[in-house]
Write a structure and sequence with these properties.
alpha/beta, five-stranded parallel sheet, three-stranded parallel sheet, 10 helices
Amino acid sequence: MLAPFCRNTTGCFTMPGFTEISPSTLMRLIGTPDAPTILDVCIDDDFNADPRLIPTARRWPHNQIDSFDGAGPVVVVCHRGLKLSHGAAALLRAKGIKAEALEGGNVAWRDAGLPLIPAAAIPAPFWVTRHRPKIDRIACPWLIRRFIDPSAKLLFVPPAQVLEVAEKFNATAFDVEGAAFSHVGDLCSFDALLSAFELDIPPLQTMARVIRAADTNRHDLAPEAAGLMAAPLGLSRMYRDDLAQLVAGMGLYDAFYRWSRDAQDEGHDWPASSIKA
């Protein structure tokens, strides 16, 4: 399949090179199980001028790229998609790692109006919440791993211990009263995460509405709420281990995201309206 055309900073349409990926193509991958590892190799001056990151990206010094020992695919990002990202991607390919540079770098991503996360908002990799998750406590870990920190560690503990575990283990508490990310008024913990990390993405906003309807028993807000409530409740009966349930729930929310992004307008009935007698 040919790479899609995209508009460069002069307004002309271009096609990414064979070792490049366009911002629009990368955005389609973020949030899915097929998303690449994203390494931001910007120099400190460029990063400090705009200290935000592409969702799931992590900072990596360009002159230490050879120490990266993860698996591919990898997308390398620098300020304008020139020497730093192309050089770093080439070094990774020399190690046998599939790697591409982001065409136009952070500047092209920003100018396309794609989401950027304030780096200062990204906490330590440990997150903690109440055990026996249902709706919001599966939705939030899904969002964290797919859009914020793919390496995040999720801890499930008794409700009375969440805040103390967070303090003792330098973890971020969520979906419990007094936590950094929890219910506020009619909004859920999923809403709080979207706001804090500036993830104003239409499919995620659609998901938030359905999650809110299911988690607060307001099925009038979204007709899909009953199904979203039924599936996690079923998973909670299938799994005694919270982490095993989370693994299964990640697949459920992956499908939910793809519906929100790509299939909201699609219906299904029987007999199919396209079938002729």
